[in-house]
Amino acid sequence: MLLVRGARPLAGAATRLVSRSFSTAANNKFVLTLNAGSSSIKFGVFDVAGGTPVERCSGIVEEVGSDHSRLKLVVDGEVKRDVADLHIKGHGEALASIRDALAPQLPGAIAAVGHRVVHGGAAILGPALVDDAIVDEVDACAALAPLHNPANALGIRFARDTWGDVPHVVVPDTAFHTSSMQPESYRYALPKSLYDDHGIRRYGFHGTSYAYVTKQLAAALGKPVSAVNAIVCHLGSGASMCAVEHGRSIDTTMGLTPLEGLVMGTRCGDVDAGVLSYLSERGYSTSDLDALLNKESGLKGLSGGLASDMRAITKLAEQGDSDAALA
Fold it and tell me: What's the number of CA atoms in the CB half-sphere (13 Å) around residue 214?
């Protein structure tokens, strides 16, 4: 079993696909990767002139839409900017601030942009060049990943406006699983009409991380990717596990949404579906249940609302708190 946290997989997938699109542009050597969340945008810039991506810059814009927005930029391991209280009103301004911050740091232009997308549904089965149809598909999956896909789609739209003359690529978290899992792994024991009419099935997430770890594991073992058989764990506030056979996902713990599977920071993971009916009969609305399962459960719920971060919970448990010890 291999545990991983904090893998940096997006650059490789994005640069492999877009390299064909700018191979003749000798002066354009940099690929920008974006991870747009609801209130933050993480970014990285990779020099791909030598064929293997080398990180040159990284950073984050946090608290977008507040009076306390913060921009942090790291160049070649050195913090170049770390400014708070910027009052960045929205994602458009956030991307403009990233563009302006990067410009003086790079000797060449941005040649391509890669976007992390949480849910690609059953249609986006790998890294894909962005067009209007791809953006519409990301939007269509918003109901399945409401905390992530709307922000992903917004980030893509603003980035296309900001860097409209270069290729853009989406890399879905789901693709590592949907491209290889078989029906016995992804079908639920529900009426087939729900699968046919509504796409109710297991999709799986954290796929970019699993793909990256699988390749790194192959390299460490001196084997081809196709020879890797492993159980891989992605552990963070969102957590999941994946069974990898011959370098491909054959099963995973997350399902239709990122809610299923392991206990997470604020997400419940597996729970008897009867709990939802029971609570619904006692006055809980759909939105109440969604908030309960996604934002108030997991480690936070088990600890009595004390914390959702394992470091804080461990400290509380060491101080004798029984709820934290249970979590």
Answer: 25
Closest CA to 18 of 111, 117, 121: 111
User: What is the enclosing helix (H) or strand (E) of 326?
Assistant: helix 322-326
pLDDT in tens for each of the 327 residues of the chain?
554 444 444 545 555 555 444 443 445 589 999 998 777 899 999 998 888 889 999 999 998 888 889 999 999 889 999 988 888 988 888 888 998 998 888 877 888 999 999 999 988 998 999 999 999 999 999 888 877 898 899 889 988 988 888 999 999 999 999 999 999 999 999 999 999 999 999 999 999 899 999 999 999 999 999 999 999 999 988 899 999 999 999 999 999 998 999 999 999 999 999 999 999 999 999 999 999 999 899 999 999 999 998 989 999 999 999 999 999
| Active-site option among 173, 272, 290, 323 | 173
| Active-site annotation holds for 321 | no
Please give the structure tokens belonging to residue 177: 């699983």
Report yes or no: 55 and 22 within 8 Å, Cβ to Cβ: no
Whole-model pTM? 0.79
User: Which residue bears the tokens 């084997």?
Assistant: 223
- C-alpha to C-alpha distance for 136 and 147, rounded to whole angstroms: 17
Q: Decide: 174 and 206 in contact? Cβ < 8 Å.
A: no
Bridge-based pairing state of the strands 168-172 and 128-129: antiparallel
Q: Calculate the alpha carbon distances from 240 to 236, 258, 264, 279, 319 in Å.
A: 9, 9, 9, 26, 29
Residues in the chain, overall count: 327
Whose CA is closest to 38, among 115, 136, 148?
148
Spatial distance between the Cα atoms of 26 and 262, rounded to a whole number of angstroms: 46
Q: Which amino acid does the sequence have at 296?
A: E
Nearest to 176 by CA among 287, 281, 236, 254: 254
Burial class (CB in 10 A: 0-12, 13-18, 19+), 39: middle
| Positive or negative: CA dihedral 174, 175, 178, 181 | negative
